[in-house]
Amino acid sequence: MSSTHFVILGNGISGITFARHLRKGNADAQITVISGESPYFFSRTALMYVYMGQMKWEHLYPYEPQFWVKNRITLKQAWVTTLDVDAKKLGFDTGEELSYDYLILATGSTPAFYDWPGQQLQGVQGLYTKQDLEDMEASTHSPINRAVIVGGGLIGVELAEMLAYRKIPVTFLVRESRFWEQSLLKQEAALVHQHLLAQGIDLRLGTALKEIISDPQGRVGAVRTSQNEEIPCQFVGLATGVKPNIDFLKNSGLNTRQGILVNSYFQTSARNVYAIGDCAEFEQVPADGRKTIEQVWYTGRMHGETLAANFCTSPQPYAPGVWFNSAKFFEIEYQTYGVIAVEVGEDIQEFYWEHPGGKIAFRLQMDAKGKILGVLALGFRLRHEYFDRAIREGWSGLKVISTLHQANFDPEFFAPHHVAIQKSFQSQMDVSFPLPKKSLIHHLFGASS
Amino acid sequence: MNMLKNVGLGLFLWGLAVFTLIPFLASYRLTEELVDSEVKEIHREKVKELLAPMYAVPYASTYSFLHAYEGLMDTYNEVLKEEGRWEEVIWEDYGFLLAKAAMQGPSRNQPWLCLLLSLGSCMGGGLLFHLAWKKEKSPGGAFAGIFHSSLTNRGLLGILVGSYLILFYVILYWFPAYFVSLVWMVDPLSRFLSGGPASQWFLYGLVYTLAILVMGIRMFSKYAGNRYQQLRTASVMFFQTAFAFLIPEVLVRLNQPYFDFKNIWPLDYDFFFDYQLSTFLSSGGLGLFMLVWGCLLIVVAVPVFTYFYGKRWYCSWVCGCGGLAETVGDSFRHLSDKSLKAWKWERWTIHGVLALAVFMTTLTLVNYFSGFKVLGDLTNQVHAFYGFAIGSAFAGVVGTGFYPLMGNRVWCRFGCPLAAYLGLVQRFKSRFRITTNGGQCISCGNCSTHCEMGIDVRAYAQQGQNIVRSSCVGCGICATVCPRGVLKLENGPEKDRIHDFPILIGRQTIQLKK
Ligand SMILES: Cc1cc2nc3c(=O)[nH]c(=O)nc-3n(C[C@H](O)[C@H](O)[C@H](O)COP(=O)(O)OP(=O)(O)OC[C@H]3O[C@@H](n4cnc5c(N)ncnc54)[C@H](O)[C@@H]3O)c2cc1C
Ligand code: SF4
Ligand code: SF4
């Protein structure tokens, strides 16, 4: 007799969260986690800090090796090349095979390139894997004169910061007319833009990549932009988004679109095969205002938790709560809760405040009746719990702002920005409410914002 | 900019070189009059006679002088010991006092100049270097690059600095006579402050305080815009300068006992030793006040302040050891061991030292109140052992010497009995915690990497759990370094401070934890 064998393909946040929670709820299951990239789960989100000498590779491991032994989670480092859903078997590039009772696909993403001429040249790469980090280290180790980054999103900024740390001049090509167009409005994008310029980044909006030009040695020597300008460079970072990593499943018979199609129970079209994390694509959006593919850390974690719970207790459909996210643009932190529309229609009321220093901003969007839809903060920290509740319970914008001091998550003694925000809200929205008293400490130390 | 940086570095190294060289620029000439004035009355005649061969002989180095001195004394003592005439053995070591009195050299003739050229140059150079470095530093927060630097990544430079510090401490604690010329250099300053001559402890206190001040200024600029870091740095700078350094000296000038009003038993392990108690009791009103004040700190201040603010009120706002760790040691905080094994060790050793300190103090008091009738020898032996092993070797040599090797809080984490006491209060009865911001953690590990106490902050944060750990000194660095705004040091209601079954915010339906 043998216990049920769960095989998890992918040891990223989604696969590992699933494995951990499954073990918590099921002492008997046989659990195997496979990944070709690294024997141990590591924090992909912190790759940049290793390059910048702020962390070492071993700091990326959230669990000590002993953890996996103690929890009887078998780790296998190998590449899977085939899946036979009828025989319930995985095949490895070595020819070896592995049978499963349940298969959880958590294969993550891979950088999306758009068939630019020259994209295969040495010195051209994305940033997703451990290998990418090592390649980047090798390509930029000896001094180079310029690097070009393509794609105005979060990975692009991380690449820019990494290269800037090594004092490599960076030209940053962004096709859209503002930075990170899909998530930032005009003012915030301009604020971040200014900050990038101040860091010495040569940020070019409305400029796309046309081709990558080789040098005589077959390495990248320059890029040509949509304006037909040729920019000499020795490194190109392509940060034009990611796509689900599912190429090896082509012949498996699984239903896929961009990602592996799943229902709200993470079931794929094959029996006993599930998909979670970056590689999963929901047949229908899992909740209002959400997308069918969500490639962020937090959703991977929630998928893993939810699916594990479904194996341990009675199954329930995946129901994500209020959206949230965060990032950092060099020194400016970004947090958002709820939905911020970048196309603001008639039915949305807006409130925006910006600190005169130009590094701190706050936006609140409300529906026509004044109910909160979402907030966005740059340069200061907001309390997740507060906004999760406010948005779930549908508080009015007025209520949110009048008790904003409870949402402050900045360290102690920091300037209390909520005061300025509250005053600004009163005058912009022409409302009044009593302002909370400043504490003695704030009187003594807090800058008048 | 690069030029300024090099000038700063040059000045610093120059100062360090002078400081290191001064002990070698000493020569000695002992006279009978000097022995007369330095040696206690009971030994005076004997020592005068014993050391007679040294009179008028010039000694070109500290070593040759001490060698001669020790040779003569040992020969005499040895015979007595062999014959069992214990009463007549001269146990006192007059090496330091005689060396100081007999020394000749530039630091005695030109103390202010030497001070300027050594410590002054170090300070100026250090500040200049930091200023210039800060200006040209490439983007990336305050923590970028530390693992690329030989000094802060246990490279050759780190090992060299560690060795230098260790050597400094070994000489300071066990061979202070080799420092007499440095002591002469600060003698005028000591006389100015307390009216008395300088000892090696005055030298140490001065260097310690200056180091905290210079590196504290560096903290202000390193953590520009971070009020929490700046305020707590200003606080340790103030407490070190005023409470640990100046006030005790001024007390001496006023003929009062030397006393550091912020040092708390059991860190201040000899607070209840018989000689301390006698000093308090024989120094009138102020002496009595010191005794009562010290006791109040132990029984009232520690529990009350720790209840409201966590142990940070002391460890990273007031304490001198903490002050040094947070300023001079700031660049080494990431070298602490984060493994579960280290945590296990830590709990044994720190509570072990606390138990030892309590045992020693109880013994001392029993002995004191029984009029030294029982346990006299044992008490002395325990004092000697604790002073050597814990007070000097652990707190000093390992605690500070190992900054570049094991991080800046080795003593605070593994050894300090006061930290153990504060930690017990913090863990079980306090409003302090580090709150995790819902589901925002991306498990990047910056917090754990840079926690000087070796706390695996990420392990809590990624589960949405508050961090409540007895060892957390509340330095706030985890909150500073977190790139997603996940951590906040807070004081709040005890209810829900510790959640054993955290729920990450962000999904609606499931309740995994039973
Ligand atoms: C540089 C960077 C920064 C990021 N920062 C953030 C951030 O700040 N916040 C945020 O929310 N998200 C961030 N993300 C996105 C986030 O990291 C991903 O959403 C998340 O890691 C996806 O997790 P996953 O478990 O789905 O897959 P992955 O982490 O991609 O793990 C999948 C694993 O499966 C392995 N695998 C795949 N196919 C096979 C196969 N056939 N055989 C063997 N092994 C296989 C892969 O090698 C990989 O190790 C960042 C991503 C990057 C690259
Ligand atoms: S947990 Fe945070 S505040 Fe506490 S000691 Fe570690 S870094 Fe400092
Ligand atoms: S630094 Fe912040 S985001 Fe990173 S692991 Fe720690 S708490 Fe999480």
Structural class of the secondary structure composition of chain B? mainly alpha
For the largest beta-sheet of chain B, the strand count, sense and barrel status come to: 3 strands, antiparallel
User: If you compute it from the alpha carbons, what radius of gyration of chain A comes out, rounded to the nearest whole angstrom?
Assistant: 24 Å
Secondary-structure element series of chain B = HEHHEHHEHHHHHHHHHHHHHHHEHHHE
CATH architecture of the largest domain in chain A: 3-Layer(bba) Sandwich
Assembly context of the chains: heterodimer
Features:
heterodimer; A: 449 residues; FAD/NAD(P)-binding domain; Enolase-like, domain 1; 3 domains; five-stranded parallel sheet; B: mainly alpha; three-stranded antiparallel sheet; two-stranded antiparallel ribbon; 5 strands; binds flavin-adenine dinucleotide; binds iron/sulfur cluster
Please tell me about this protein's structure.
The complex is a heterodimer of chains A (449) and B (514). Chain A has 449 residues and is α/β, with parallel strands linked by helices. Chain A has 3 domains: 5-110 and 243-312, FAD/NAD(P)-binding domain (3-Layer(bba) Sandwich), CATH 3.50.50.60; 124-240, FAD/NAD(P)-binding domain; 324-445, Enolase-like, domain 1, CATH 3.30.390.30. Chain A has helices at 13-25, 47-51, 65-70, 130-140, 154-165, 186-198, 297-312, 384-392, 397-402, 417-429, 440-445; strands spanning 5-9, 30-35, 73-77, 80-84, 89-92, 97-99, 102-105, 109-111, 124-125, 147-150, 170-173, 202-204, 209-214, 220-225, 230-232, 235-238, 242-244, 260-262, 273-275, 280-282, 324-329, 332-338, 348-354, 361-367, 372-378. In chain A, the strands form 7 sheets. Chain A has a 5-stranded parallel sheet with strand order 3-2-1-7-19. A 5-stranded parallel sheet of chain A has the order 9-16-10-11-12. A 5-stranded antiparallel sheet of chain A has the order 21-22-25-24-23. Chain B is mostly helical and 514 residues long. Chain B starts with a helix and ends in a 23-residue tail after the last strand. Chain B is built from 23 helices and 5 strands. The mean pLDDT of chain B is 94. Chain B has helices at residues 2-21, 32-38, 41-50, 62-83, 95-102, 106-109, 111-136, 156-174, 180-194, 200-222, 227-253, 274-281, 284-309, 312-315, 320-327, 340-369, 376-401, 403-406, 410-414, 417-428, 446-450, 457-461, 477-481, and strands at residues 27-29, 58-59, 103-104, 432-436, 487-491. At the A-B interface, helix 1, helix 5, helix 7, strand 21 and helix 8 of A face helix 11, helix 21 and strand 5 of B. One iron/sulfur cluster is lined by residues 434, 451-453, 455, 457, 467, 472-478 of chain B.
